[in-house]
Write a structure and sequence with these properties.
85 residues, alpha+beta, two-stranded parallel sheet, 4 strands
């Protein structure tokens, strides 16, 4: 799918009802990270980054709700309560 600008590419990617994973490729890693942060996806591989089984896993939209694995996955099963004395 073609796009006219970086903002257009991000809008196209975020315009889907799914958001499990995405990928960003760039010769400038810092630039790729800036773009990746704008994407509504549970995981974003940068320049073909390897899948990390210890990273929280989950998506946005119809690709799932919540996270599995890691601290964020554990937090899905907890509720925070403040006790005040």
């Amino acid at each position: 799918m073609s796009y006219r600008s970086e903002d257009d590419a991000v809008a196209i990617a975020n315009g889907t009802r799914y958001g499990l994973a995405a990928a960003v490729w760039s010769a400038d890693q810092e630039h790729a990270v800036r773009v990746a942060r704008q994407l509504r996806a549970g995981q974003v591989e940068i320049n073909g980054g390897a899948f990390n089984v210890a990273a929280p896993f989950g998506g946005f939209g119809q690709s799932g709700y919540g996270r599995e694995l890691g601290v964020h996955g554990l937090e899905e099963f907890t509720e925070l309560k403040a006790l005040l004395f």
